[in-house]
Structures are given as structure tokens and as C-alpha cells.
Amino acid sequence: MCGIVGFNGHQQAAPILLQGLTKLEYRGYDSAGLCVRDGSEPAVIIKAKGRLSVLKEKTNDGLSVHGDCGIGHTRWATHGEPSETNAHPHCSDDGNVIGVHNGIIENYQELKEKLLRNGYTFYSETDTEIAIKLIDYYYKKYLHTPVDAINHALVRIRGSYALELMFKDYPGEIYVARKDSPMILGIANGESYIASDVPAILKYTRTVYYIGNQQLARVGKGEITFYNLDGDEIEIEPKTVEWDAAAAEKGGYEHFMMKEIHEQPKAVQDTLHSVEHDGVIDLSGIGITDEQIQKLRQIYIVACGSAYHVGVAAQYVLEDLAGIPVRVELASEFRYRHLPFSENASEDSLVIIISQSGETADSLAALRKAHEKGLPTLGVVNVVGSSIAREADHVFYTLAGPEIAVATTKAYSAQLVALYTIAIQFGKVRGLISDEDYTKYIADLEALPAKIEKVLEDESRIQWFAAKQSNAHDVFFIGRGIDYAISLEGSLKLKEISYVHSEAYAAGELKHGTISLIEDGTLVISVLTQPRLIEKTTSNMVEVRSRGAYLMGLTTYGNYDVEDLADFTTYVPATDPHFAASVAVIPLQLLAYYFAVSRGLDVDKPRNLAKSVTVE
Ligand code: G6P
């Protein structure tokens, strides 16, 4: 959601800001804007509704706006409709303070009333305008210095923010502040960069500062000074980003999603090899001790979207291999429910938060709730230095590299393999897995990348089927056990990028309602990778077929009976059934991709969706 960029250096800022915003397009947005200042000349603000291309046209790709210091923003509307007026940057009436903001100001109404009482008026419907004017108010009331004014405002603001600000009296400087919304700062060759996310600045620098919660910074040219809420200077060490600039480019593919689908063998292999060497899994880097593992009586897996679906699949694996009861919760539910935790929860429970971005607002809130209740937490996170990675007690980094397409593929696959290694190791430490099975499971994981590769080789078959079916109105995915978890992800992929209504059902639930929706020609995709459940799901296929369904079967090589029943069957290599999601999800990702392409849709940036959901 909302993307933020900033530049302060010795080149023209606008083209750099626009390039950075382009790299952040994947976050989701509906309007964009920038503000550039040339020395002590008045700042110029330009905004546009719609795609970034409109802003680029308005500014002649940034060439018509002069100045070497500036801020930019892509807005994903929360308060107020998408419009040029509501787009950022926002500005105090006399141009004293100009700023952009990502996040939500929860007490904006109360702050607005305070400002109205003090003579302020408002031109937009945004909470950001209120924040900017509040800073202006404190600037004028007290010391006339940015750090003091920002700090006074931050003490009054409730909610989340990544703020970039420019002050009329302080040319050549940008001020930033952050709480619960992502923001990083970078430096290279006497110039400074600001961004919501690494891909926006990878081209320029890999030396970044992760500014902490409720911290501020004054960003000069190639020098950054950090402050705490008291206005005292603080030290933040720079970190080196491991991702290379090419990782955030399309690399010859038409869409990031397709590139990322093809990067899955590597994402799985890299993530596996980060904890497994010579047939032995070593989780010591994550800091969970064998004693802790032995004591576990309950695991909670908490996540949103596809990461939640990883949790659903992992639940079966963990319960089976490690013998620990698992509850999988949507983060948006977990954070508000009153779950009775056991008396010894701080010792016998573990909360696993799965998140690609590490910034999803609900997942972060769930993590904090777990901490409030004294429960230990493990973050399975892709983005280094993200909020969840910083706040979790233990972190397992997935090594998927930057994921740009809104619809996740490689991060999902990397998360799955991370959870498998946790399940195997927990099972081993708890004495439930023999040495022989341990060796076999690890060999199965080692074989996954090649099996995924093999499914990818069969891409054209799925492409053909998708082109034929892409006019479908409703699609149902059915499966049992892990096949149900795979169905959930397949269905989400399809609906989010192709806008075709789809639902996933535990196959046994069909008769409790959904079957009434099956008509002549309704596409039903049946997932059958779990040997002990295949017969059961096959019966459900027979039921829907006799009501007119058009059937696609997704199963493993060897289950050739499925062909007798299904109108179209696709096969994936067999693996240990616990790990089947890793292989079987691939044709469903491809199916969703080719549905969207056949329908002429913007695969990487589906409407209304954001890559990183940083507000509730
Ligand atoms: C958004 C993305 C999904 C992702 C979900 C959770 O909805 O489009 O791909 O699964 O957020 O994001 P996270 O970063 O926490 O994994």
C-alpha cells in the first residue's frame, strides 16, 4: 500500500523519484504525486489521479520539474476517494510544511477538531492533511524547528505512519518519521535515498538504514541524522542489502509473476539450504532450543492471504510429523479474539507468524498480541529488517528474494519449505521421527526443486486449458487434507488476478451447500495428491459430474484412473504426501496466470489489491 520515495543529492530529483515510484507500483495505488525543491525556491507539487504514467506525462518524465531535493508518493486510498485533491503530497496553507504519508492516523477526527479550533481549514478528505497541519501548528507554536515540531505532533498522533516532510525554512533537507509503516533510508556517493521498500533504491545503493519505530531522521545530501522522540540524536548502524538490482527486474519475462513462478525452484532450494546441510536440519540460527521444542504443547500459526494458506498446509504437516496440536488463525481474527491460553503458554506454546513482507498490519498486531500474552513468537519472513522480523523473538528468513507481483508465488513456496523443515526438526527432537524417516524426508525436500522444474516444463498444457476456460464465471476447487490447503491457494490465485469468482471447499463439505451451485459446465478443479484420501475425493467428483460439472483433475503421476472421470487431467511428480502442496500448487499458479493473460488483465497489479497491506 502507499509507496514513498525521497531523494536529496546532486542530480535532478524528479526523474529519480518517478523511477523509484515505478519500482513501488506493485504495492498498489490509485494516484501519485511528487514535490521537488530547487535550492530555496518555493517547492513545486504535482499530483495526478490514476496510473503513474499520468504523473510522468504531466512532468515530462520528471524533466520539467527542477530541483535536487524531493519526495514522492503513490497513494492507496483509505480516507477519501482516489482523486487529485486527495493525492499526496499535502501542504499547509502557506506552504510551510509539505509531506507525504503511508499509514493511518486513527485519531484524525480529534486532531482535526483541535486544528479547526485554531483556525485551520482543510481542502482534502485525508488524514494526511491533518498530520501535516498538526506539524505546522506545533512548528509555529514552539521552536520553529522541524524535529521539535514533528515530535510534538507524533506524541498526539495515534496510528501508523511513514512520513516524509519538507519545511519552507529548511531548503535542501527532508525530514522523516516512522511508526509501524515500512521505510528505509539509503546513502551512496554523497546522496540520500528514502523508500518504503528496498526495490525502489536497489539501483542506487545497497547500504541502508532501518529507521526504528517512533524515530525521526534529518536527511541531508549524503548524510542522515537520527533522533528519538525526545529529540536526542541516536546512532543507527547501516546494513547491507543482499538482494541485487537484477532481482527486482523482469529479466525478459512479460510479467513479474511469471518470472517469480519460474524462480520457485531456486527460492525453495535457497531456503532449504539456509537450514539444511549434508542431510541435517539445523535451526540453531533461529534460536529455538531443543528443550523448548520438547516442551511444546500448542502451536498457533497466524498469517494473512497466501501466507495463511501456507499455515493451513503446515498444520497438517506439523501435527503429523511433530505431534503438536496446531491452530491456524487469520491474523485479522487472532488479534481481536479472546483466546484462552494455557497457564504455561509462555513455555509450552509457540506463535508462528508467516509473512512475506513482514509489514502486514494485522500480522504485526497479532505478533504484538502474542507478546502481550507472554507467548514466544517465531516470524517466517522474507524481507530482512521488516517490522515482524525485528519484533519477533525468533526469525526464520525465507530466501525468495524480492517479490514484486501482487499475487505471491515464490514467497509462498519458500514459506512452505521453511515450515516443512520446522515440522521435520520438531518431530525429530520430540522423538517421533526415526533416523531413517528423517533421511527420507530430507531427501524428499532436496528433490522438490527438480520436481517443481518438471511441472514448469509442462506449462503449455495449462496455458491451452486456461485459454479454453477463461470465460468461466465460477470455478470451484475441492480437495481433502493438504489437497484442501492447495485448493485454497489455487482459488485465491485465480480470483485475485483473473477476477473470476472462485471458491475452495473441503471436498467433504460440498454436500452441505455448495453442490447446489453446480450447473451444466461449471468448472470444478479437484486436487488429488493424498493417497489415503483420493478415493473419497473421487466420490465427490462423481457427485459434481453427475450434476453437470466440467472437471479438471490435478493429481500425481500414477493415478491414471482420474482421467476416466475428469475432462482434463494434469499430473505432477509424486513426493512424500506431506510436501505435495509444493508441487501441486504450480499448475494452479500457471492456470491463474494464463486465465488473467487470456482475459487481457494486468497480471502484476490486479485492481484494488496491494502487495503489502500495511493498514487494517
Ligand atoms: C496481500 C498479498 C498476498 C499476501 C498477503 C499477506 O494480500 O497480495 O500475496 O499473501 O498480503 O502478505 P504478507 O506480506 O504478510 O505475506
Beta-strand residue percentage: 15-25%
The chain-level structural class is: alpha/beta
Bound molecules: 6-O-phosphono-alpha-D-glucopyranose
Major β-sheet annotation: 8 strands, antiparallel
- Strands of the biggest beta sheet: in what spatial order? 3-2-4-1-10-9-11-15
Radius of gyration: 25 Å
Helix content: 25-40%
Shape: globular
- How far the N terminus sits from the C terminus, by CA atoms, comes to 11 Å
Low-confidence runs (pLDDT<50, min 5 residues)? none
Secondary structure tally: strands: 27
- Total helical elements: 20
Give average pLDDT, whole number.
Answer: 94
Give a structural overview.
37% of the residues lie in helices and 23% in strands. The chain has 20 helices and 27 strands. The chain has an eight-stranded antiparallel sheet, covered by helices on one side. It has a seven-stranded antiparallel sheet with strand order 5-6-7-8-12-13-14. A five-stranded parallel sheet has the order 19-18-20-21-22, sandwiched between helices. The termini are close together. The structure holds 6-O-phosphono-alpha-D-glucopyranose. 6-O-phosphono-alpha-D-glucopyranose binds at residues 304-307, 355-357, 360, 363, 406-408, 609, 611-613. 6-O-phosphono-alpha-D-glucopyranose binds next to helix 9.
